[in-house]
Amino acid sequence: MADDNEIIEQLKSTLDVKPKRMKVKTLIKKFGFVRRTEENMLRLTELFRDHEILVNPTIMKLGDTWRLDLEDWIYLSLDTPQPQLPESTAEMQVIEWDGNQWLDLENLADKQLRTEKEVEMKFIIPLLFKLGFNETDRYDDMAINAATGSKPTVLHIDFALFNSELESLKNQVLLTVEAKRENRLTTQKEIIQARNQAKSYALWTGCSFCLITDGNIIEVFSLPRTHLEKETILFNCSRIELASKFSELYKIISKSVLTQFYTSQFGTVEEIT
């Protein structure tokens, strides 16, 4: 009987040309599990990472419930050096916002953000709204069981963003957000620590894009999920620059752009049985 590594290598050999899809129940059966548990899904997530295979959407439980049914599809592909955003975003139109919107970019520099909660409520949530994410798309303080080496841990993600309107993106995290208190991203050490915290979410959520902010500094990066040390900074600006640079940010992590990116990963592909 083949062991887990042999099964993974057999799967990987089928991905040389293009991605493949399989049902969750097929994945469980292929590895000899009697039923789906958080422990065996964690084990498989680590195995796929070790063999540089991406699984979208994540097979992990997000929060308290399994969002993926056993009949749902997952998509397997070889990891790439860096996620590539759709070329069409360069010409896309940014949604215009009038002055009555919750977050007034022109007057943003004057806001007081004294605690991490105020950064979340007064800055991040309105910013996500401007980027096209509605309340249903947003999962606040999302818990996910994970592991650091051989040690189990529970991660709490400040904000995980979805496209709640598309069944094809069920359980697919489009973007994770790591919030810090104001002025907690002022040194390179603090920025690296925040990046590393955000990176720790990528493997378990199946998400390739992260935003970190303390309300003064806004940074967005992407990363290959099997090589978390190789992030690429896509956007960085201060709060006072955001009004002039919002169009650039929108074309990187708006709901519409990230929806295009992830749906492009889930084209009509051959099934693994």
UniProtKB/TrEMBL annotation:
Keywords: Endonuclease, Hydrolase, Nuclease. One of its GO terms (molecular function) is endonuclease activity. The lineage of its organism: Bacteria, Pseudomonadati, Pseudomonadota, Gammaproteobacteria, Thiotrichales. This is Restriction endonuclease subunit R.
